[in-house]
Specification:
The protein has 6 helices and 9 strands, in the order E-H-E-E-H-E-E-H-H-E-H-E-H-E-E. It has helices at about 10-20, 65-85, 110-120, 125-140, 155-175, 185-200; strands spanning about 5-10, 30-35, 50-55, 90-95, 100-105, 145-150, 180, 200-205, 215-220. The longest helix has 23 residues, at about 155-175.
């Protein structure tokens, strides 16, 4: 199989499902977004995200640094306008950490407001990321390569998930028993997939239904 199309509630979830079916990483694939998700009024005429993912003979080309910088500036300007419309006092800046471009949001007066923006287990942050992703892609006609972060929540969460994934991988290699991690967003499940892939001799798969979808780590068959 060289190509699959998959649909899901979000673009990231559709991509994850397609990559799993093809058995390739994101760097080994060509990704085409065929349809953006849309919430219909009162649940009517809603539609899911649809993506087409192809195997690539070589790693997919990365955006030039200036293109990613442009995406960061677009996202930052959009966020500033959104926060102003919400009457939230916050600073927005673009930073690059470990090769990843972040649009960071920092509360100026109210940490409670920032907590509401993050939401329980980062759910509001993920919704904000999806909004930014759609905006950037429509403006640039390229896949969005920037991440929104609030008070470093995403960076701290990433470090924690990587540690949990490595610990689970070590236990599975030692005992041979599969291990399931906690339910996570599509973005966080990708962190687990990538982290475990670095260990070797193991495989991962996402199981369950959103929002309780989780990653299972097992020895390679």
């Amino acid at each position: 199989m060289e190509e699959v199309e998959r649909s899901a509630a979000s673009v990231e979830e559709a991509i994850e499902a397609a990559l799993e079916e093809l058995g390739v990483s994101e760097q080994e694939a060509r990704i085409e977004i065929l349809q953006e998700p849309r919430q219909g009024f009162l649940g009517l005429n809603a539609h899911q995200a649809v993506v087409r993912v192809r195997r690539a003979g070589a790693p997919a080309p990365e955006l030039e640094p200036e293109d990613v910088e442009e995406q960061g500036e677009l996202a930052a300007d959009f966020l500033k306008g959104l926060l102003e419309a919400m009457a939230l006092d916050a600073e927005v800046e673009v930073n690059v950490v470990d090769g990843v471009t972040y649009v960071d949001v920092w509360g100026v007066s109210s940490q409670e407001d920032m907590g509401l923006l993050i939401g329980r287990r980062g759910h509001n942050l993920e919704a904000l990321q999806e909004l930014i992703r759609c905006y950037v892609q429509r403006q640039t006609e390229d896949r969005c390569h920037v991440l929104v972060d609030i008070e470093d929540y995403r960076k701290r969460r990433r470090t924690m998930i990587e540690g949990k994934a490595r610990d689970a991988a070590r236990r599975v290699r030692k005992t041979g028993r599969p291990e399931s991690l906690e339910p996570m967003s599509a973005y966080e499940r990708k962190i687990v997939h990538d982290t475990v892939a670095e260990v070797g001799g193991l495989e991962t798969a996402s199981e369950g239904e959103e929002p309780q979808r989780f990653v299972v780590v097992r020895r390679s068959s």
